[in-house]
């Protein structure tokens, strides 16, 4: 009997925790992503298996929870928890990270008026991100690794819309999709939610020069959209202070 | 017309033969032959009202073949066809899965799937398809999402797949008096499909 190989596709990324491949599910025209957590030779074999299995199950459950409760993320198609593999819906992207980089590179080539128009769209994207994280927290789910790579853009499915790849495509017609729930958890704690926002803030401020203004829009949108935002944002102040103290010591 | 397909990631000699029927008149007979374990009737006979898209039964077939071939997993039911019905289930209860996702004596539509290893000398595509088209007495319709949605029983789907939280966050916001942008009908079906495929995929984790 030929051995089963789920992992046939093109390698998209080989990270520390996971390898991801682009492939197809059920039909050659249904693209999917296969996320594999390879075993770590330096970890104890049994412990490694348990950890791999745990992360995989946890991520699959969280993806499913979010998807069905109404927070956009990839649909889970198949899970092989023993091998630490998840097959999920392919999100065409780009990631918010790549999008912002392109935007910032492009922006210097444009005139003032054009930049203004793009700024308006960028603001809409930030609004959208704040709303999405607000929804996530309103269903008591913590992402655990909110970076701009783990936020993807997906053009809204309506006939005639095209795949988004540059800054001048209408952001108003794309949704923000959350990926990578490997470090996530279900929790209603304000502290956990505040830390989620803090992680995103650090990620934003370190990658994008004009990010302070952008992050402010995210927070403002979160404030207006998330039902539990006021306590979480108060917590965020404390988390920031702690973070600052830590960085002064360290 | 019946559909024949092999599925990415699985050995290409494994093929699914699928046909969808409405106005079915012999469901009671088919059901009794399943109970009698008559090998001539070894098919996955699925109740179409619990389906929301054509991907759903193919995904179940994929899982069944996968588990059959994976030495670490193996089948939980007698054969790959019963396993396909079981693979539609979000829980481990095999008896319930047959009752809910398989046909009943009173079914008026039927989705039939035959899975075969086409590398076997005994395999013939034409006779497989002929038999598939005649074993169910009814009107054959296209096996596609459009036809399947005509047969979907939404309340049954939501109950069996435990989807009471579907779209929870929008409901929550509505209750707080916010206006929520209405989803298109297509989007609502897609969301339902995603939730169902996810529930099936997570069966081993519940
Ligand atoms: N569902 C998906 N569709 C398309 N691309 C994805 C999807 N999931 C992940 N990716 C891509 O693969 C990269 C790594 O996947 P991710 O789940 O974030 O794992 P890691 O733990 O290595 O960050 C992402 O940054 C993204 O570019
Ligand atoms: Mg990531």
From TrEMBL, chain A:
What cellular-component terms does GO give this entry?
Answer: chromosome, telomeric region; cytosol; EKC/KEOPS complex; nucleus
Subcellular location, record wording: Chromosome, Telomere; Cytoplasm; Nucleus
Q: What does the UniProt record say this protein does?
A: Component of the EKC/KEOPS complex that is required for the formation of a threonylcarbamoyl group on adenosine at position 37 (t(6)A37) in tRNAs that read codons beginning with adenine. The complex is probably involved in the transfer of the threonylcarbamoyl moiety of threonylcarbamoyl-AMP (TC-AMP) to the N6 group of A37. BUD32 has ATPase activity in the context of the EKC/KEOPS complex and likely plays a supporting role to the catalytic subunit KAE1. The EKC/KEOPS complex also promotes both telomere uncapping and telomere elongation.
- Protein family: Belongs to the protein kinase superfamily. BUD32 family.
Q: Output the InterPro entries linked to this UniProt entry.
A: Bud32, Kinase-like_dom_sf, Prot_kinase_dom
Coiled-coil regions listed: none
Ranges for domain Protein kinase come to: 6-250
Keywords attached to this entry: Activator, ATP-binding, Chromosome, Cytoplasm, Hydrolase, Kinase, Nucleotide-binding, Nucleus, Phosphoprotein, Serine/threonine-protein kinase, Telomere, Transcription, Transcription regulation, Transferase, tRNA processing
- Gene Ontology molecular function: any one: protein serine/threonine kinase activity
Looking up Pfam families in the UniProt record yields: Kdo
Q: What is this protein called?
A: EKC/KEOPS complex subunit BUD32
- GO process annotations (BP): tRNA processing; tRNA threonylcarbamoyladenosine metabolic process
- What interactions and quaternary structure are annotated? Component of the EKC/KEOPS complex composed of at least BUD32, CGI121, GON7, KAE1 and PCC1; the whole complex dimerizes.
Catalytically driven reaction(s): L-threonyl-[protein] + ATP = O-phospho-L-threonyl-[protein] + ADP + H(+); L-seryl-[protein] + ATP = O-phospho-L-seryl-[protein] + ADP + H(+)
Q: What is its main location?
A: nucleus
UniProtKB/TrEMBL annotation, chain B:
> Which biological process terms from the Gene Ontology are attached to this UniProt entry?
tRNA threonylcarbamoyladenosine modification
Q: Its principal location?
A: nucleus
**Record lineage:** Eukaryota, Fungi, Dikarya, Ascomycota, Pezizomycotina
Location in the cell reads:
Nucleus
GO cellular component terms listed in the entry, alphabetical order? cytosol; EKC/KEOPS complex; nucleus
TM region positions: none
Alphabetized Gene3D superfamilies for the sequence: CGI121/TPRKB
Q: Which family does the similarity line name?
A: Belongs to the CGI121/TPRKB family.
Domain of life (superkingdom): Eukaryota
Task: Output this protein's name.
Answer: EKC/KEOPS complex subunit CGI121
Write out the function statement from the record.
Component of the EKC/KEOPS complex that is required for the formation of a threonylcarbamoyl group on adenosine at position 37 (t(6)A37) in tRNAs that read codons beginning with adenine. The complex is probably involved in the transfer of the threonylcarbamoyl moiety of threonylcarbamoyl-AMP (TC-AMP) to the N6 group of A37. CGI121 acts as an allosteric effector that regulates the t(6)A activity of the complex. The EKC/KEOPS complex also promotes both telomere uncapping and telomere elongation. The complex is required for efficient recruitment of transcriptional coactivators.
Its keywords, alphabetically, are: Nucleus, tRNA processing
**Residues annotated as signal peptide:** none
Q: Which InterPro entries match?
A: CGI121/TPRKB, CGI121/TPRKB_sf
């Amino acid at each position: 009997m030929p051995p089963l190989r789920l992992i046939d596709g093109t390698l998209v990324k080989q990270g520390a925790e996971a390898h991801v491949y682009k492939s197809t599910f059920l039909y050659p025209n249904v693209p999917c992503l296969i996320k594999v957590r390879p075993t770590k030779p330096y970890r104890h074999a049994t412990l490694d298996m348990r950890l791999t299995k745990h992360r995989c199950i946890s991520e699959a459950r969280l993806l499913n929870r979010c998807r069905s409760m109404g927070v956009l993320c990839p649909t889970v198609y198949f899970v092989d928890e023993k091998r630490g593999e998840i097959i999920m819906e392919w999100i065409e992207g780009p990631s918010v990270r790549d999008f912002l980089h392109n935007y910032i590179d492009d922006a210097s080539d444009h005139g003032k008026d054009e930049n203004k128009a793009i700024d308006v769209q960028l603001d809409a994207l930030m609004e959208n991100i704040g709303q999405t994280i607000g929804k996530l927290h309103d269903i008591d789910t913590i992402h655990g690794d909110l970076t701009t790579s783990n936020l993807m853009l997906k053009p809204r499915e309506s006939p005639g819309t095209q795949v988004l790849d540059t800054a001048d495509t209408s952001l108003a017609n794309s949704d923000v999709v959350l990926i990578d729930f490997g470090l996530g958890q279900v929790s209603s704690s304000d502290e956990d939610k505040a830390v989620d926002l803090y992680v995103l803030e650090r990620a934003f401020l370190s990658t994008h020069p004009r990010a302070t203004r952008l992050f402010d829009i995210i927070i403002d949108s979160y404030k207006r959209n998330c039902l539990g935002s006021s306590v979480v944002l108060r917590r965020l102040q404390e988390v920031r202070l702690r973070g600052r103290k830590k960085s002064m010591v360290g | 017309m019946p559909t024949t397909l092999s599925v990415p990631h699985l050995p290409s000699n494994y093929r699914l033969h699928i046909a969808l029927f409405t106005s079915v008149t012999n469901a009671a007979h088919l059901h009794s032959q399943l109970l009698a374990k008559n090998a001539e009737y070894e098919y996955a006979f699925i109740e179409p009202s619990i389906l929301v898209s054509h991907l759903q039964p193919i995904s179940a077939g994929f899982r069944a073949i996968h588990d059959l071939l994976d030495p670490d997993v193996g089948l939980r039911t007698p054969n790959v066809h019963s396993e396909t019905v079981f693979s539609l289930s979000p829980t481990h209860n095999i008896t319930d899965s047959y009752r809910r996702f398989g046909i009943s004596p009173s079914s008026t539509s039927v989705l039939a799937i035959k899975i075969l290893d086409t590398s076997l000398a005994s395999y013939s595509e034409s006779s497989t398809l002929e038999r598939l088209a005649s074993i169910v007495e009814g009107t054959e319709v296209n096996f596609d999402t459009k036809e399947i949605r005509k047969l979907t029983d939404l309340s049954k789907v939501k109950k069996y797949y435990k989807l009471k939280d579907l779209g929870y966050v929008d409901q929550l916001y509505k209750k707080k008096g916010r206006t929520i942008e209405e989803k298109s009908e297509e989007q609502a079906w897609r969301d339902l499909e995603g939730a169902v495929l996810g529930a099936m995929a997570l069966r081993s984790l519940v």
